[in-house]
Amino acid sequence: MERLSLFSALEEFDHECSDSLELRERIVGSGSSYVNQCTFCGRQIGQSISKKSIAVTPDSFDVILHEEFEYHYSRVSSLLKEGFTESGGSDRRNIHEIFEQEFDEFLNDFVEKHNNGEVKAKNSLINSYLTRKSDKHYKTLTSKWRDEPQLKSWFISKFSKWFHIYPEVRGRGYLNGKENNIIIDFVLLAKPELLAEGFTTEPVGVEVKFLKTGIGDGFTDSASKGVFQALSYAYSNSTWDIPNSPNSRLCCVMMLSNLSHKHERDFLNAAPGRIKYLQWESFLNLARHANVGEIHYYSNNSTRDEMWSLKFAGGTYFTFQGNGKYKLRNINLIGKERIGNIQ
Do 28 and 3 meet the contact criterion of CB atoms below 8 Å apart? Predict the structure, then answer.
């Protein structure tokens, strides 16, 4: 299997069990108990639940599901490891351990010589080193993206094959009891080809942001504002005037940015310290509880393969795997209604 496909396949195993729990009856010895089972990976989550509080007998626990999940995950992981071995990376873990040991020895000697062995000096040197190296890394990015209009044009040209795309949709949101006029970049309705594979019939919102990743370009500010904008639509009781369907509600809002593309996402992830990458992931991890996710797009120039997925920090909702292959991954990731404490 081609490396791009392998990495994409491995990502599909990412999920949050809490988003996919269903009550099941599990046979234990000569009796049974009621437990929560993750319908994505098959694991039992938590302890047994009192039968007295359950009026209807739940479906049987799927004992095969977890075995199948582990089998497929191990298979993809093994294929990736074989690929690393072929490329000279068979001893990656050991190399990291050796690097850590030798780096610690060098740092201890350096601090002992120049800073009297102070622990604070070690941490300061490491932080300064990572900052300087990451700044140099960010300067090397060669991006194909210039601004939001370019991203929007690309999105329409690519994704109109799978969705009816409505740009600049107007709507209303409510804050402190007052109505506010709002606009979202796109609203999508799936075409029959996706609906046949289980994609939702409900409208999906898309908010587009171009995120500058250079030094001093305000990445944190623009990234947090973009995610908050998408998140605010969920908690302002917003409705949208889609053609022939006024006052519609969105089942989720997907972020589309230059980081939706594998090349730029991997570039951030490769930076020493990974600060900006982890910031972006943290923003999305918070926003997933309000049905905010991210569009991921993969392409291979040599084979002209293209794949995309609608991802949330807790897993993947839907994927297009190329060659007309679609997969509904986890239906529980959209349309969540949450407020207050989340269990």
Answer: no
pLDDT digits (tens, 9 = 90+) for 55-70: 778 888 888 888 888 8
CA distances from 16 to 27, 75, 146 (A): 25, 21, 34
pLDDT tens, residue by residue, 305-327: 788 999 998 788 999 987 778 98
Q: Under DSSP, is residue 194 helix (H, G, I), strand (E, B) or coil? A: helix
Tell which CATH classification among 1.20.120, 1.10.10, 3.40.1350, 3.30.1490 matches the domain 148-333: 3.40.1350
Contact status, residue 273 vs residue 130, Cβ threshold 8 Å: yes
* Nearest alpha carbon to residue 4 among 296, 282, 217: 296
Amino acid in position 148: E
Q: Where are the domains of the chain?
A: 3-86, 92-138, 148-333
Q: For residue 181, report the phi and psi dihedrals to the nearest 5 degrees.
A: -80, 130
